[in-house]
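Quick check before the chapter quiz. The format below is the same one you will see on the exam, so make sure you can read both the input and the output lines.
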Amino acid sequence: METNERTGTRRRKTASGSAKTDTRRKKTTARTRSAEASGTATKTRSATKSSTETKKRRSVPAKKTASVKSRTEGTTRRRSAGNAPAVVYTPAQPFDRGRLLLQLVTVVAVVLALTFCMSIFFKVDETKVTVLGNEKYTANDIFEASGIQHGDGLLSFSKARAAGQIKAKLPYVDTVRIGIKLPDTVNIVVEELDVLYSVKDSTGLWWLITSEGEAIDQVNGATAGEYTNLLGITLDSPAVGSTVRAVEPEPQTNELGEIIPATVRAAEQLSAALTIVQYMEDESIIGTVTSVNVGDIRDIELWYGQQYQVKLGDTTQLGYKIRCMKQTVSQLAEYESGEIDVSFTIMPDQPMFTRFT
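Here is the expected output.
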């Protein structure tokens, strides 16, 4: 009986142990399966992640690539800059006055030496002086008037002073240009006055003047006839190279012997004459006008050659009147002669021509 109970107890214990063992086995199997499932999932996620990263790397945008490139180049430059030699700063040197003074003395010495050499080797040779453009004066006259001497330093004489002396001593010379050519040649080019006017002074002598009123030369009556005569004015003590002045006309008297007050001054007459010849120069009709009479500036007359007597009237619109005169003459036949009225007193702005009978 007791043996049966013990046997039954043992069987119950064995069954209980078997049940426990089965339970452990089931748990172990479940754990193993869970672990395997977990490992498989992990591997799957890793593979998926790896595949995604690979795709991302392959599809990197162009901008990102450029950025990476830029960073790479910057790194390369920094590395290159790092290989450059370092800047070495030295302290400022003190100002060396002695050295500066030596340099200045050297420069001055070189200049003086060059000047000395030029003054010795480059001298004026009067046999090699050339003069161009001269008609009134000879080449020797112009060279002597310049004040340049044979043997003068070619680079040391004053060109401006030489030109000024030529114009002062030779009144027909209008402009002067002086040049040099090493080692010993001087070139002088002059332009002489070719447009002059003749007028009498208070002593009855004829003078040649420019349209600016400068006295050029005293001439005889025959020479004065070769130029346009300015009548109705008298010069007051003219001198070569100076600006002329006109003498006031003598007072006139009426029938009762009373002095008639002058209505026009000599300066106005001279100014009117010079203004007219300046307009004539502008129109290039100098050689064809033989005389201009400004004795009465309210009734100015001139002779265009020997064919046309021209009435200009007063001093208003003188330039326009001269142009109208020139145009009227150009429309007339060469054989015609007569009076041209451009005073515009009868018909405004209308020239009139009357043939001589």
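If your answer matched, good. Residues 197-250+262-355 form a domain with the Rossmann fold fold (CATH 3.40.50).
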